[in-house]
Amino acid sequence: ADCLDFVLQDQCDIIDKHTQSGLDLVEKYVKFVKERTEIEQNYAKQLRNLTKKYSPKRGSKEELECRFSNHQAFLDILNEMNDYAGQRELIAENMMINICIELTKYLQELKQERKTHLSEAKKAQQSLEGTYKQLDNSKKRFEREWREAEKAAQYAEKTDQDLNATKADVEKAKQQAHMRTHIAEECKNDYALQLQKYNKEQNQFYFTDMPLIFSRLQDMDERRIKKLAQGYILFADTERQVMPIIGKCLEGISRAGTNVNEKNDSVVLIEQHKSGFERPGDVEFEDYSQGINRASSDSSLGTPKGPLELLGKNRNKTFRLFNKKSKVDPISLSMLIYHPFSTPPTPSPANGPPSPKFGRDPLSYCLKEINKTVKPRISSFRTLKRTSVDTEGFTHLPPEQRRKRLQQKIDDISKELQKEMDQSEALGKMKDVYEKNPQMGDPASLAPQITQTAQNMERLRGELNKYEVSFLNPVMPFEFCLHNQNFSYVLFSPGAISDDTDSSQAIYTEFDDDFEEEEVAAPIGQCTALYNFPGSSEGTISMQEGEVLSVVEEDKGDGWTRVRRNNGDEGYIPTSYATITLNK
C-alpha cells in the first residue's frame, strides 16, 4: 500500500506539473499575440503619421499641383498607404479579439476546472489514507490483544499446573485468559472488517476514482491543446483575411505609377500658364545714316527738326515724353499716346471735337503742337500713382489666364444665381400654398426671405453681367491703364494738367530744350529673362530669354516690374517672366 501510494503521489505530481505547464504556455502565447498587436498598432500609427506628413494641405501650392499626373500619383500612393495602415490596424484588432481575449477567457475556465479535478483527487487520496490508518490501528490492536490473550492463556495453564495454587487462583487465571481471548477475537473481527473496507476503498480509488479524475484532466489538457492550436491557426488566418485588400492597395500603388502621363503633364502646364501674348516680330533695321544726312542738309536754324533727326540725336539717352519737368498741351499729348505717326483715334467727348487742322496734316500738326510750349506741364507716367490691382477683373493676369479665370468666375456665379432662382421659385410656391391654406402658415412671414432672395438675384445678375463684359472686352496689360477707363481719363483727370500753360512761348526751339532730361533712377537689382517677351503693348519692353536687365522699380502687386537696359531703354515686363534679385 505504501508503494502504491508513492506511485500514485508521483503520478499526481507529474500530471499536476504537466497541466500547469500547458496553462503557462497558453498564457505565454497570449502575451506574445498582445505584443504583436502593439507592434501592428504602432506600425499603422507611424504609417498614418507618414502619410499625413507628406499629404498636401488644403489650399497649398502642392494641392494645386495635383492636376499633374505625377503629383496626383503620389497623392494616390499616400491614400493607398493610409488604407494599408487601416488594414494593419484591422489585423491588430482581430488578433486582440479572436485570440487574446478569447484565449484569456478560456484560460480562466481551464484553471478553475484543473483546480476542481486536482481537489477531487486530493480528497480521494486523503479518504484512502484515512481508511488505511484505521486499518493499521485495528491491526495493531488485534496484534496487541492477541499477545495479551496468549500471555493470559499461558499464565492460566501455569497456575493450573502449580500445586501450591488454590482453586480460586486457577479459576481466576482461566477467566482472565478467557476474557483476553474474547477481546482478541473482537479485535480480530474488527481488523478483518477494516481490512475489507480498506480494500474496497482502495479498489474504488485506483480502479474508479483516480482513473476518472485523470481522464478528466487528460480531456481538459487535450481541449487546451486543441484551443491553442486554433489560436495558432487564427494567428495566420487573421493576416491572410486582409491580404486581398492589402493586395488591392499595392495594386493601387502600381496603378498610380502606370497612370503617370508625362506628355499630358506638359500639356496641362502649358494650358495652365499660357499667357496669350503674341510672339515677337522681326527686329527692324535702324538706318542711322538718315539722321546724319538730314542734319547736314538743314540750313535754317529756326526750322524745327524732324522726328527721325530728333530720335537719332537722342538714341543713346532715355527718351521720355512725359517726365517730372515736362509740360505739354493735352491735345498733342493725347495724339502721341496712341501713335504720333498714324491717324489718331476718335477723341472722347472730354477732349472736345476733332480739330480740322489735325485732320488735314496729322504729322505736322502733331509736331507743331508739341513745340508750342517750351516746358510741357504734365507729369510723367512714373510720377502717376499706381492704380490698385483689379483682382476682380483679373487684369493683372496674362490674357489667356485672365480668360480662364473669368470663365470660371462666370460659371460659379451662374450656379449661385441658379440656386437663388430655384429658392425664389420655391418661396413663391410656398406663398401660394399659404395663401390658399392659411392654417399652414402666414404668407407675410415669407416676405423678408423673398425680398432677400430677389436682392441676391439682382446682385448676382450685376456681377455676372460685369464679368461677361470683362470676358468679351480684353484689357491691355499695362499697369498705367486705369481699368474700365481710357487713356484720356488717366492723363487728363483733374490735377494732372497745370493751369499755367504759357502759349506765348517760342514754337521753334530745339527738341532737347523742350523736354529736359530726368535724372536716371539707380537700379535696385537685376533680373534674368526666363522667356521671350515681345513688349508690343504700351509701356512694356521686349526681352529675349537669358537677357540680363537692371531692375528700376519692383513689382507692386500688379504682376509687372520696371526694368532698364544698358543702353537706357526702360519699360515693364511680366514679373513671372524673369528671375529677380534685389540689392540688399
Provide a descriptive summary of the structure in words.
This is Thyroid hormone receptor interactor 10a. Pfam families: FCH (PF00611), HR1_TOCA (PF25610), SH3_1 (PF00018). The chain is mainly α and 584 residues long. Helix content is 63%, strand content 4%. It has a five-stranded antiparallel β-sheet with strand order 4-3-2-1-5, with no helix packed on it. Helix 1 (2-54) packs antiparallel against helix 3 (69-161) and helix 1 (2-54) runs parallel beside helix 4. The longest helix has 93 residues, at 69-161. It is elongated, with a radius of gyration of 58 Å. The two termini are 109 Å apart.
Could you spell the SSE succession in H and E letters? HHHHHHHHHHHHHHEEEEE
Share of residues in strands: under 5%
Shape category: elongated
Query: So what's the oligomer here?
Result: single chain
Radius of gyration: 58 Å
Distance between the termini: 109 Å
Features:
mainly alpha; cell membrane; 584 residues; coiled coil; lipid-binding; five-stranded antiparallel beta sheet; single chain; membrane; HR1_TOCA
In short:
The chain is mainly α and 584 residues long. It has helices at residues 2-54, 61-64, 69-161, 167-258, 262-273, 289-297, 307-313, 330-338, 356-360, 362-370, 399-436, 447-472, 487-491, 511-514, and strands at 525-529, 548-553, 560-564, 570-574, 578-582.
